[in-house]
Amino acid sequence: MSSPDLDDEFDEFFDEHFDNLFQDCLDDYGSDQQPTSSRRPRAFIDRGREEGHIRLWNDYFSENATYSQASFHRRFRMNKSLFIHILDALSNEVPYFQQRRDATGRLGLSVLQKCTSAIRILAYGCAADAVDEYLRLANNTAML
Predict the structure, then answer these.
(1) I need a surface site. Which of 20, 43, 53, 80 has the fewest CB within 10 A?
(2) Predicted model pTM
């Protein structure tokens, strides 16, 4: 059986060596890191989000839409009124589907773009980049 004094000595020994080892690891890690000022800035790639939203709206949702109701139904596997109902519910209840500004202050994908991509992915069981024609989602989709 160990004595209280021996336990205290062990605790002190352990704490001292652990602290030294931890500090050595921090020092080693810190010396491996590049200073933040030498990092290259991220490249901006304009994915045409705004143009994608306008094209999507004009093709399917405007008064004089490019495609008919039948085309809409074939493409989305539901009628437009049901789609709009789902869009409203998602945008009001699920934060992901609300349009927000990104880190640069630009508006992100519209509610219409996000819902369209989610519904098409679910309807067809395809990958996110397969619905990229209007949505510009290929590199920034974290979907259901």
Answers:
(1) 43
(2) 0.60
> CA separation (Å) from 2 to 7, 17, 18, 111?
7, 21, 22, 66
Residue ranges covered by each domain of the chain = 49-135
Measure CA 7 to chain center: 51
Q: Is 143 within 8 Å of 128 (Cβ atoms)?
A: yes
Distance of CA 36 to the CA centre of its chain: 24
Task: Name the token pair of 61.
Answer: 């949702």
Q: Which of 87, 89, 86, 102 is nearest to 140 (CA)?
A: 102
Q: Note the pLDDT tens digit of each residue in 31-65.
A: 555 555 667 777 777 778 889 899 999 999 999 99
